[in-house]
Amino acid sequence: MNIITKTLASASILLSITGCTAFTDVSSSTSSTLDTVTPDITLNEFISKRYVAIRHDAANGGGENLNALAQLMGKQDTHAFAKLMKSNFDTIFSNVDKPAEIIARIETQSSLNNG
Question: Chain-centre distance of CA 88, in angstroms?
Answer without folding.
Answer: 23
